Amino acid sequence: MRESGVMHMNNRRRNTDASASERKPNVVFFNDFFAPYSVGGAERFLGLLAQGLAHEGVKSTVVTPRYSGSPRMANLGSVQVFRVGTYPDFKQFLRAGSGTSPRLRVRHRGLEPAQFERGAPETVFHFHNLWRFSTSLIQHVRGKKVMTLHDYGPFCTRRVMVRVSGRLCPGPTFIQCALCHASGPTTLGSLNPIKPQVWYSNNKRILTSLDSIIAPSLYMKRFLRKHLGSEDRIELIYNGVDTQRFTPGIQTDGRRILFVGRPSPLKGVQFLINVYRRLPSPRPTLLMVGPAPGSVPAPEGVKLLGTVSDESLPGLYQNATCLVAPSQWPENCSMVLLEAMSSGLPVLASNLGGNPEIVEHGVTGFVLPHNMPDSWVDSILLLTQSEDLRVRMGEAGRTRALRRFSLTDCVTKHLRLYSRLVG
Q1: 413 and 52 in contact (C-beta within 8 Å)?
Q2: Which domains does the chain have, with CATH numbers?
Q3: Crossing angle of helices 218-228/195-208, nearest 10°?
Q4: Judging by beta carbons within 10 Å of its beta carbon (0-12, 13-18, 19+), is residue 274 exposed, middle or buried?
Q5: How many CA atoms lie within 13 A of 162 on its CB side?
Q6: Among 174-183, 214-223, 307-316, 323-332, where is mean pLDDT lowest?
Q7: Per-residue pLDDT tens over the stretch 117-156
C-alpha cells in the first residue's frame, strides 16, 4: 500500500511538472508606438510578434502611450492593446519630436491600470522602444524583464549613433554627447552638459538589471558587449518577416526602383535623390514610399508617394525592379530589407549596422558604401539592365528570407526565451 501511495504521488508530481512545462507564459509588451500610431519597422515587427505569439496560445498584451483622441483600449486580433498616460495629438508629436530628440516634454500619469506593475509568475514584461515612456519605466514593474534594442536609445540622445554633423559616432563621450544633447529642442535640461552622462549611466544600470536583452543583429550584440562590458544575458534574435504576406510577383521590365522609409536624412532620402540625378537618361522611375509629395525637391521621374496603406505595400514590392535602402545610420535588422527579400526583390543596402548580415553581397543584392554615390549608380544600372541578374538575386533573397528570417522561426525563438525565464 505504501509503495502504491508513493507511485501515486510520483505520478501526480510528474503530471504537475508536465502541466507546468506546458503552461504558456503571458507577455506584456511596452512600446512608444503601436498601430495605427506607427513610425517605423519596430512597430510593424512588434505587431507581427504579438500576433504570432497569440497564435501559439500566448496571452499577449501591448501597453503604449495614449495620444489625444485615441481609445484607451483596443484589440488587434487576439492581442489586447492598452493606451496609457496623456500625450499630445500624434501628428503634433511627430512635428515637434522630428524623430530624433527624446526631450519633448509631455504629461505622463504612470501606468494605467495598476495590474501591469506586478505580473503573475509566468508573466514576462518585454520592452521595446522607450522614448516616450523612458527606460525608468523598467524599474516600476516587477517580474521577468526583457528588452529588445532596435536602436541605440539608451546610449545616444539622438538614438542613432550619428553626430549632428552626419558622421558616425564611435561611442558616448562627454563633449560629443553634450553637443548632440544641446542640438535638440531648447529646454533647461538641454543646456545642462552633464545630463547626457547621468542619463547614460542610469540606462546602463537599468540594462544590466534586465533578465535578458535581445539584440536583433550581431552588430548590436557586439555593441552591447562593448558598452555593457559583458554579453551575459544578451540573446541574438533577428526580426522576422511574414513570408506568406510578402511574396514574389511578376518579373518587371527593370524600370521601377523602390524606396521605403521615413522622410529623414538618416534614411538617405537626399542621398538617393542625388544618386538618381546621376543616372543616365532614360532613367527608370523612382518610387519613394514615405516622403510626401512636394516635401523634398525631386527631379522628373521621382514619385513621392507619402504614406501608403499596409494593404498596398506588398504590391509595391511585387511590381518593383529592386529596393534601394541607402540608410545613413547603423540600423540593426531593417524590416524593409526583409520584406523586399521575401518579395523576391534584389536589395541595395548601405554597409552599416546589421545590413551586411541580412543582404548577402553579390548573391541577394549589393552592400554598398553609404557615402559613395557612384557605387550606387553602377549597381542600379547593373540590375536595371540585366533581367537574369534580377531573377537570380530575387530568388536567392526569397530563399534566404524563408530560411533565416521567417516570422515562424522568430516567434519560436522568443517563446523559447520567455519559457526559459519563467520556467
Answers
A1: no
A2: 22-240+407-422 (3.40.50.2000), 256-404 (3.40.50.2000)
A3: 110
A4: middle
A5: 19
A6: 174-183
A7: 556 778 999 999 887 677 778 888 888 999 999 999 888 8
- Nearest to residue 390, comparing CAs of 367, 365, 416, 413? 365
Q: Collapsing DSSP states into helix, strand and coil, what is residue 168?
A: strand
- Tell me the torsion sign for CA atoms 354, 359, 362, 366: negative
Q: How many helices (H) and strands (E) does the chain have?
A: 13, 14
- For 375, the grid coordinates are 557605387
**How far from the centroid of its chain's Cα atoms is residue 39's Cα?**
10
What pTM value is reported for the model?
0.88
CA distance 228 to 225: 5
Q: CA-CA distance, 34 to 126, in Å (whole number)?
A: 14
The CA distance from 253 to 273, in Å, is 21
Q: Are 365 and 416 spatial neighbours (Cβ–Cβ below 8 Å)?
A: no
Q: Could you tell me which residue, 404 or 20, shows the higher pLDDT?
A: 404
Q: Is 233 left (phi over 0), alpha (psi -120 to 50) or beta?
A: left
pLDDT over 60 (residue 95): no
Tell me the mean pLDDT in the region 394-419. Answer: 97
**Ramachandran bin of 399, using left for φ above 0, alpha for ψ from -120 to 50, beta for the remaining angles:** alpha
User: 395-407: per-residue pLDDT in tens?
Assistant: 999 999 999 999 9
CA atoms within 13 A on the CB side of 326: 27
For 209-233, write each residue's pLDDT tens digit: 999 999 999 999 999 999 998 888 9
Compute how many other C-beta atoms are within 10 angstroms of the C-beta atom of residue 33.
21
Q: Given this model, what pLDDT does residue 14 score?
A: 45
The three-state secondary structure class of 198 is helix
Inter-CA distances, 327 with 188, 259, 337, 369, Å: 32, 11, 11, 10
Mean pLDDT value across residues 173-201: 73
- Note the pLDDT of residue 129: 86
On whether the CB atoms of residues 179 and 172 are closer than 8 A, the answer is no
